[in-house]
Design goal:
Elements (H helix, E strand, L loop, with lengths): L1 H14 L5 E6 L2 E6 L4 E7 L3 E10 L4 E9 L3 E6 L5 H11 L6 H9 L7 E6 L4
Antiparallel strand pairs: 1-2, 2-3, 4-5, 4-7, 5-6
Length: 128
């Protein structure tokens, strides 16, 4: 049974837990941190952020709220509400990014109606 060894390798890979990503505030912005092993994936400074777009992803039985955070260096990062540190970060955005609305101003518009695709630009840095 040559295939049983290959099947065992495949099954062991499928059983491995996925790394989770958390969000952590740092003095000049925030970091995306992977666990197991702990690793800083990216550090995003407030002055690098050019745009933040909020959207809702249909996950079949629930919706997931996410932000696409665009960086001036032509990079984008996705952060989602199930990440540890999400709530703390979204409360900090209005303090650090001029014109970014408070959560109560955008959440209802984004979340309802359920399972409908909604996209809202929450912040866009004016061109220099």
């Amino acid at each position: 049974m040559k295939n049983s060894a290959g099947l065992k390798r495949l099954m062991s890979k499928l059983r491995k837990p996925r790394r989770s990503i958390s969000l952590e505030l740092v003095p000049n912005g925030f970091s995306l941190i992977a666990d197991n092993p702990r690793e800083v994936i990216a550090e995003i400074h407030w002055d690098e952020i050019s745009r933040v777009i909020a959207y809702k992803r249909d996950c079949f039985i629930y919706d997931q709220i996410c932000f696409a955070v665009d960086i001036e260096k032509a990079k984008a990062f996705e952060i989602c509400e199930d990440m540890e540190g999400w709530e703390n970060l979204i409360q900090t955005f209005p303090q650090k990014l001029s014109g970014f609305p408070e959560k109560k101003q955008w959440l209802q518009k984004l979340a309802f109606p359920a399972f409908k695709t909604n996209v809202i630009t929450l912040f866009e840095r004016p061109p220099l």
